[in-house]
Design brief:
The complex is a heterodimer of chains A (112) and B (115). In chain A, 0% of the residues lie in helices and 53% in strands. Chain A is built from no helices and 11 strands. Chain B has 115 residues and is mostly beta strands. In chain B, strands 2, 4, 5, 6, 9, 10 and 11 form a 7-stranded mixed β-sheet that branches. In chain B, a hairpin with a 2-residue loop joins strand 5 and strand 6. The radius of gyration of chain B is 14 Å and the shape is globular. Chain B starts with a strand and ends with a strand. Classes of the chains: A mainly beta (112), B mainly beta (115). At the A-B interface, strand 5 and strand 10 of A face strand 5 of B.
C-alpha cells in the first residue's frame, strides 16, 4: 500500500459544481495533514492545513477521518481558477516537518 | 522579491557536464530542502538542511551534491547525470523545529533536462 494515495483524476467539472477529493494514508500514527495546490509547471503552494475537527476556508472544506485514515477536500462553487493539481501531504512524525510524504496529486479541470 | 528564488529556471546539460542549481530564501527560515518531481511520481525529498547542517540524505546518488553555506542559500551541484535525472527540482524552506502544520514555501523550480 502506498504511504499516501490519491485518485489521480482528472476530474472535469463545470463552473459552480461541488467536487470532493479523498486521500488515504497508511501510517496510522501520522500527525499532521495538508492540502497543497500545484498549477501547471509551477511550484506547490499550501492550500490549507487539515485539523482534527475539520476546517473551512471560504469555498474549501477539509476533513480528517483518523479511524479510516483518510482526508478529504471539498470545493464548493468551483471557479475556472480552481483548475490545478491538488496534492495531499502527510507528516507522519509529530513536530518533524522534514518528513512530509506527498501524494501524486489529483488533477482538477473546471470548465466554463 | 519572492520568498524562495531558484536559478536557473531551465537547464539542459550533457551527461559529462557539471552544473549547479541555486536557491535563495528571504523568509528568515532556518530549514531548507531539495525535492525532485518527476512525471507520474510524487514529490521526492532529496536533502534537508536545518541551521546549515545536513540532517537528511534520502539515499540520493552521489552525482547530486548539496551545499548550504548559510541559512538563506542552498545549492545542488550536479555532475555526470543520467537522462533519468531529468525532472523538476524544487527548493523549499520552512521554520525548523516548530511543531505540526508548518508550511513549506517552494521556489518555482529548475526544470532540468539531461541529454
Amino acid at each position: 500500500r502506498k504511504e499516501v494515495e490519491q485518485d489521480p483524476g482528472p476530474f472535469n467539472v463545470p463552473e459552480g459544481a461541488t467536487v470532493a477529493f479523498n486521500c488515504t494514508y497508511s501510517n496510522s500514527a501520522s500527525q499532521s495533514f495538508f492540502w497543497y495546490r500545484q498549477d501547471c509547471r509551477k511550484e506547490p503552494k499550501l492550500l490549507m492545513s487539515v485539523y482534527s475537527s475539520g476546517n473551512e476556508d471560504g469555498r474549501f472544506t477539509a476533513q480528517l477521518n483518523r479511524a479510516s485514515q483518510y482526508i478529504s477536500l471539498l470545493i464548493r462553487d468551483s471557479k475556472l481558477s480552481d483548475s490545478a493539481t491538488y496534492l495531499c501531504v502527510v507528516n507522519p512524525n509529530a513536530g518533524n516537518n522534514r518528513k512530509l510524504i506527498w501524494g501524486l496529486g489529483t488533477s482538477l479541470a473546471v470548465n466554463p | 522579491e519572492t520568498g524562495v528564488t531558484q536559478t536557473p529556471r531551465h537547464l539542459v546539460m550533457g551527461m559529462t557536464n557539471k552544473k549547479s542549481l541555486k536557491c535563495e530564501q528571504h523568509l528568515g527560515h532556518n530549514a531548507m530542502y531539495w525535492y525532485k518531481q518527476s512525471a507520474k511520481k510524487p514529490l521526492e525529498l532529496m536533502f534537508v538542511y536545518n541551521f546549515k547542517e545536513q540532517t537528511e540524505n534520502n539515499s540520493v546518488p552521489s552525482r547530486f551534491s548539496p551545499e548550504c553555506p548559510n541559512s538563506s542559500h542552498l545549492f545542488l551541484h550536479l555532475h555526470t547525470l543520467q537522462p533519468e535525472d531529468s525532472a523538476l527540482y524544487l527548493c523549499a524552506s520552512s521554520q525548523a523545529n516548530i511543531p505540526v502544520n508548518t508550511e513549506a514555501f517552494f521556489g518555482q523550480g529548475t526544470r532540468l533536462t539531461v541529454v
